[in-house]
Amino acid sequence: MITITDLHKSYPARGAKDTIVEALKGIDLEVADGEIFGVVGQSGAGKSTLIRCVNLLERPTSGTITVGGQDLTTLSDAELRTARHGIGMVFQHFNLLSSRTVRENVEFGLEITGVSKSERAARSAEILELVGLTDRASAYPSQLSGGQKQRVGIARALAGNPRVLLSDEATSSLDPETTDSILQLLKDLNRKLGLTILLITHEMEVVKKICDSAALIEDGRIVESGNVIDLLNTPGSKIAHALFPLGESNGAPGNTVIEIMYAGHLSDEPIVAKLSREFGIDVNILGAAVEIVSGKRVGRMRLELPGSAASNAVPISRLKDSGLFVEVLEGVSA
Amino acid sequence: MNQDRWDWTAMIPVLTKALADTATMVGIALGFTIVLGLLVGVLLVTTDDNGLFAAPFGSRRFGRGLHAVLGFIVNIGRSLPFIILMVVIIPFTKLLVGTFLGPVAAAVPLTVAAIPFFARLVEIALREVDYGLVEAAKSLGASKRTIIWKVLLAEGRPSIVLGLSTSVISLLNYSAIAGLIGAGGIGDIAIRYGYQRYQEDYLIVTIIILIVIVQAVQLIASGVAKRLSHR
Predict the structure, then answer these.
(1) CB B67, CB B44: distance < 8 Å
(2) Hey, where are the domains in chain A?
(3) Which of B132, B141, B228 sits opposite A112 (nearest CB)?
(4) CB contact, 8 Å: B59 with chain A?
(5) Residues of A engaging B, defined by a Cβ cutoff of 8 Å
(6) Helix, strand, coil percentages for chain B (3-state, nearest 5)
(7) Shortest Cα distance from B49 to chain A (angstroms)?
(8) Could you list the mean pLDDT of each consecutive 10-residue stretch along chain A, which spans 334 residues?
C-alpha cells in the first residue's frame, strides 16, 4: 500500500544556514495493505520527517514514495492535493480548527473535495458515530478533553474515506488510559474499514498493542524492520528488547545467563519448571516479561543457570530444540 | 461674550455636518483599509519563510524579494507622521479625487496611513495561527486559497477584529488631523471652534463625542472578538 524507496531528506540547520542536516539517509519501507505499521525511534531519529514525507508535507530530497500504486513525488500540485484526499493524517497536537465546531472540523475535508452540504452532514454524522462523539458534534474543540480531540482528528482524517491513515505521534500527548482507548479505536477502524495505518511513535507500548509490523529508525536509517511476532523471535532484535525490557540484573559470576524469547504456541509451556524437573537445575529468573502482542502471548525471559555455559550445553540445546529462541549472554560468566 | 455659549440650535447643525464628514472619510478609508490591509497582511505572512507563497512561481528569490519590498513599504508608511504624509501625498490625492479638500479627498491619506498599520496587525493575527493547522489542512488536500480563507483568516478572525478596532480608532485620530487641511469633520470643529475661537463648549462636546465613539468601537470589537473566539 505504501512503498518508500531510498528516501533521503536534508535541510539547512536552524540558525546555521550553511550546515546541512541529513534527517533521512536512505529509507526503504513497505507497508502492506490493511496492516498497522509502526515506526519507532528516539526523538531526532527522523521518524517525524519520515511520516511527513509520506504525504509530502515535506518534499523528499530524493527517493520515491508510492501510495496505492501512485508515485507521489512526480505529481503536480493539483494531482497531489487529489492524492492527499486518499491519505488521512492525525497529529500529536490534534490541529483542530478552534473556530469550528466538532462537526464543522469533520466536514472540513469534505468541503475541500466539494461534497454537497447534505452529504457532508450525513457523512459527518456517520463518522462521529463511529468514533463515539455524536453527542459532542456542536461543541468547540476547546470544550473537549484530549482524547475527544484526537477522536475528532481521526474522524476528520477519515471523513473522506481514505485508504491510508498516517498517525504522527497521535497518542503522545495523551494519558495512558486515553492512549489505550485511542489505540483501540485505531485498531477497530483498521479491522472494520480495512484501513492501512502507518504510525510513528516513541512509545513501545503502541507497537506492542496494535502494530502488525514495526521498524526501528536510528539516525535517519531503518535498522530493523518486519512483522512484530517475527522480530520477537529474532535473537538480538533491538525492537524485541525494547518491547520487553528486562532491566540490568546479570546474575552471579561463574553462572550462565541466557535469554529466551517465545511467541505463539510455545508460550503456554512451563519452561522454568521443565528445566528444573528434567535437568535438576536451580533456575533463577533474573527478569521476565509476558504480554499479548497481535493477539498472541509473547514473552522474554532472562534466566541464570548455575555453572559455566559449557556445563549447561545440554539443557540449552534442549530448549533450542523445543523451538525457543535462546541467546547465551556473553561476558557475564567471567 | 458668554451669552453665545451652549447655543444648541447653532451647535447641532455644525456638529451633525462634522459627524457626517468624519463618518464619510473614516468610512471610505476603512473600506479600502480592510480590503488592502488584509491583502498586504496575508502577503506579508505567506511570502515569509515556510509560507504558502514562500516561492511564488517556483522562485524563492521572488518570494523573498516580494516579502522584503512589502515590509519596506509598510515600514515607510508607518514611519511618516500622519500630518507629513498627508501633505506629501497631496499631488496623489489630487490625481485620484481631483481635489485635496473635503472628506472624500481626506480619505486618501487616511487610507494610505491606515493600510500599513492594519496590515501589521493582520500579520500579527495570522502569525498567531498555529502552523499545525495549515499542515492539517494541507494533509486534507486543501488549496492555498482554502488555507488562506478557511484556516488563516478564519482562525485569525478574533485578533483581526481587535486589530480593526484599533485601526478605526487610529483613523478617527488621523481624521482630526486631516481637518487641518480642510477635510472637515469632528476634529476640525474642535480645532476651529474650540482652539482658534476659544469656544470651549464646542471643544467639550467634540471631546465627549470622540470618547463615546472610541469606547463604543472598542466595546463592540471586544464583544465580537469574544464571540468569534473559541480557543
Answers:
(1) yes
(2) 2-232, 244-328
(3) B141
(4) no
(5) 55, 57, 81-85, 87-89, 91, 93, 95-100, 108-109, 111-113, 140-142, 153, 156-157, 160, 166
(6) 85, 0, 15
(7) 12
(8) 95 80 93 96 90 94 94 94 95 96 97 95 95 95 96 96 95 93 95 95 90 94 91 82 77 82 69 83 85 77 84 84 79 45
- Let me know: does A285 contact A317? Beta carbons within 8 Å: no
- Is residue A89 within 8 A of residue A166, CB to CB? The reply is yes
Cβ of B137 and A108 within 8 Å? Answer: yes
User: Could you list the residue range(s) of the whole structural domain that residue B29 is in?
Assistant: 2-228
What is the CATH number assigned to the segment(s) A2-232?
A: 3.40.50.300
Count of domains forming chain B: 1
Size of interface A-B (CB pairs under 8 A): 73
Q: Tell me, what CATH number does B122's domain have?
A: 1.10.3720.10
Establish if B155 touches chain A: CB-CB under 8 angstroms.
yes
Nearest to A108 among B130, B140, B157 (CB): B140
Place of cell 529509507: A27
Mutation to test the A interface, candidates B140, B147, B155, B231, most A Cβ within 10 Å: B140
Predicted complex ipTM = 0.86
Of A92, A157, A97, residue with least CA distance to A124: A157
Q: Which fold has domain A244-328?
A: Alpha-Beta Plaits (3.30.70)
Residue at grid coordinates 504558502: B52
